[in-house]
Write a structure and sequence with these properties.
By secondary structure, the chain is mostly beta strands. It is built from no helices and 30 strands.
């Protein structure tokens, strides 16, 4: 179940559109600009009409799945759509805008993929023959190509988090396996996973050049699901982890351990240069994750995602145990700028319920 919650005013439906054909077509991420225009990314197969109105704008995938970007007006009218892809599996996972309306998309691709949706060609090749690499693409407000970068290992790598700060720096988070080069340029910044999945956080400047990267991992499965920045440039990274991890990317040590060895949630704060400030965790005996995060003007932190069974949502010495109603429930957690507990709300049915994003 995917849903949104609107607070401070009673929500009313203005419009709704469905886009897709007979195959599996998914919208993975959505964002709006100051004029109310809507941008979404995801993946599609075969031929899809991306115009939800009476007209037709059909795009044909180059391979099994291609990534797309769709722009609609504030009234839900079609403006434009583009795709990029190759002969294998390609998908857009996250979309974000900078302060002047440029569009950034992160996701995964396999094999050779042309990331220029126009008449030009910008082919990138994944490092693993049949495994996925991470891509980051920058487009202008009209969907024209600016640049594309990729990072990857010989294993499967995924990009789950994307954030653009006030000066156009790009933050990407996700997970990787084996040895990865996180510098998309000619230089090398390698890291090797401790387990089957480790966390990475990558920072690029506005032209796609490498600034810094950090990795964290246990002997289990760990991933960076979402990333955000505050008004001072501090970076917040959240995701899931197992067992014990040192979350300080520098010479210091700050270890956290999951409650039961299944999957707990971590939240770390770094400064603008990637130096460690603090790390927190919360979780229970089930599989828990933070899928989206926002920082308000007072630097309070809001997290949403899913949890199972009983979770202590207070990352400090206090206890705030809440049970799930079903298999997995949604939660919204508020922490103060120091990562200390403020409040938590949970929502759920007897099935699976996820909180996927803030608007």
């Amino acid at each position: 179940m995917r849903f949104f919650i609107a607070q401070s005013q009673s929500p009313s439906l203005n419009w709704a559109h469905g886009i897709g054909e007979s195959n599996t077509d998914l919208g993975m991420s959505i964002v709006t600009d100051p004029s109310g225009n809507v941008y979404t990314t995801g993946r599609f197969q075969d031929t899809v009409d991306f115009d939800p109105g009476i007209n037709t704008f059909s795009i044909v995938s180059a391979g099994y799945d291609d990534a797309y970007v769709l722009k609609l007006s504030a009234s839900g009218n079609f403006i434009w759509a583009i795709k990029f892809g190759g002969a294998s599996f390609d998908a857009g996972y996250r979309i974000a805008l900078d302060g002047i309306g440029n569009i950034y998309v992160s996701g995964i691709f396999r094999g050779t993929c042309d990331f220029d949706p126009g008449p030009g060609v910008t082919n990138l090749i994944s490092n693993g023959v049949s495994e996925s690499d991470v891509f980051i693409v920058k487009l202008d407000a009209s969907g024209n190509f600016i640049w594309a970068k990729n990072v990857g290992s010989s294993g499967s790598d995924y990009a789950y988090g994307l954030f653009i700060n006030q000066i156009g720096d790009v933050y990407v988070s996700g997970n990787f396996f084996n040895t990865i080069d996180l510098d998309p340029g000619p230089a090398i910044f390698t890291a090797t996973s401790n387990g089957s999945e480790d966390v990475f956080l990558l920072k690029l400047n506005s032209i796609g050049d490498f600034l810094w990267a950090a990795t964290f991992g246990s002997t289990g499965k760990d991933g960076g699901s979402t990333v955000a920045c505050d008004q001072f440039g501090n970076v917040y990274l959240s995701g899931y982890f197992q067992f014990t991890i040192d979350f300080d990317p520098g010479p210091g040590t700050s270890t956290l351990s999951s409650v039961s060895g299944w999957q707990d949630i971590f939240l770390i704060k770094l400064d603008n240069a990637g130096n460690f400030i603090w790390a927190k965790s919360y979780g229970g005996s089930g599989i828990d994750n933070c899928l989206s995060m926002r920082i308000d003007q007072l630097n309070n932190i809001y997290c949403t995602g899913y949890f199972h069974d009983i979770v202590d949502f207070d990352p400090g010495p206090g206890i705030m145990n809440l049970p799930s109603a079903g298999l997995q429930d949604n939660y919204i957690l508020k922490l103060d700028p120091s990562g200390d507990f403020v409040w938590v709300k949970t929502y759920g049915s007897i099935g699976d319920d996820f909180g996927t994003s803030f608007v």
